[in-house]
Amino acid sequence: MSLYRFSQCSLYHVSLVVFAFVWAGIASGQQSERPNVLFIISDDLNNFQGCYGDPLARTPNIDRLAERGVLFDRSYCTYPLCGPSRNSLLTGLYPNSTGILQNSQIFRQTIPQQLSLPQAFRLDGYFAARIGKLYHYNVPKSIGTNGHDDPGSWELELNPAGVDRLEEEAEITTLTPGQFGGTLSWYASPKSDEHHTDGLLAADANWVLQRCAKQSRPFFLAVGFYRPHTPYVAPRDPYFGFYPKDKMPLIQNVSEDQKDIPAAGLASYKREQDKLTDALRRECLQAYYASISFMDAQVGAVVDSLDRLGLSDNTIIVFTSDHGYHMGEHGLWQKMSLFEQSSRVPMLIVAPGAKANGSIVKTPVSHVDLFPTLAELCQVKAPANLQGQSLVPMLEDASTIGRGWSLTQVKRGGTRKQGARTPSFFGYSLRTERWRYTEWDSGEQGTELYDHHADPQELHNLASLPEHAATLQQLSQQLENAVATTFPESGVTPAVRPVTWAPNLTDP
Ligand SMILES: [Ca+2]
């Protein structure tokens, strides 16, 4: 068409052409208009980040995301262990509804028809891809495999393995010889970033994003980093150098602190941790921090790819971890406690154009809130039985209270002793704007009450003090009401069945 002839076109004809495009868009679901999602999850990462106020952590890239988006200051997992937490997050249901209360199980064994978060996006037209650990994996043994992941959730799955998995096992220092994933273990590797699994994940993410940039379909790209999960293996240079061993702080007055904590609250302690000396504690802390900074650099590489490819303006970025992690607080290490260090997680959401970007949300929120949030932001059809709330109102106004509480649970007991199993029970922690209230076995095995305004480190259990009796009673009722929302409509926790599905046949 010549310029002359184009100028002769009437507005009517131009309108017809525009209408035809819009109509075609609607007919095809208008997918290219919907935002992409870059979902980044780290493993066993607590709130040791600069943006969460940690004085030592060097996390410039996670901090940069916090500046770009909304930081949820009081975000909690539903269960402080990889498998139950990840199944909960990725189905939008509490563990009492997924039925998944331990690792090495997946919701397809209990509620096989439930749509997962990435699966809902995939079935609604998104390209859904996974790189690394999204559902449970044994670390480090399952690195480089599909682990306990869910094939129905993705169209593309990439499982790179680096020197940390393939070459360096013999070099690792560990509290229990031959074990690395469940025990404190660490190694300052002489190999640089690109040789490590998380470095390879970032490179794969760059490769996938390059291809996503060329297609019209929106994408849901999930990147699951393995660090800082044990073994804390990261490049020595520069990351271990950021944290001189003799500068690593040790927790003091542990035995005094433990006096008012019920036994169940401390039951995640492992006997092997008796082997820890102050020198070993400092080594652990150095290696954990170094692993965080290494993982942070890989987050930066992925976000840089997104920016460089011009995808940032239409891509929602989520950054979180599956649960928190103790480094000696209350005498505890690793996970499986209901204290802040083990149950609280970093959670950042960068939604382009959201009014609250750059702000901090203080109200307690939960991992189960991510599914409804992303579904609303992307107009993706979500299952009707999701148990969380949408965080979109907080992305618009950071002072929004929403549900106003968050619930975390953990199982105790059920271990084999002299041939018989000990009785098992749950601990539930309810966080409100001010309090953390906990009942172990409905209070039979103890209660805890911490005032986060006055005691954010949870050093003083107020549950037995008469002046807090009314608060305790009110929180106990609120806890009971909250727990009631975690069950399926039947009220019966699904039982775990053996795996019966075949790969790629998991769609309902
Ligand atoms: Ca984990």
UniProtKB/TrEMBL annotation:
Its EC number is 3.1.6.6. It is an enzyme of class 3 (hydrolase). SUPFAM superfamilies: Alkaline phosphatase-like. It comes from the Bacteria. The keyword Signal applies. Keywords: Calcium, Hydrolase, Metal-binding, Signal. Gene3D superfamilies: Alkaline Phosphatase, subunit A. Residues 35-378 form the Sulfatase N-terminal domain. GO terms for molecular function: choline-sulfatase activity; iduronate-2-sulfatase activity; metal ion binding. Its cofactor is Ca(2+). It holds the Pfam family Sulfatase. One of its GO terms (cellular component) is cytoplasm. Belongs to the sulfatase family. This is Choline-sulfatase. It comes from Aureliella helgolandensis. The gene is betC_7.
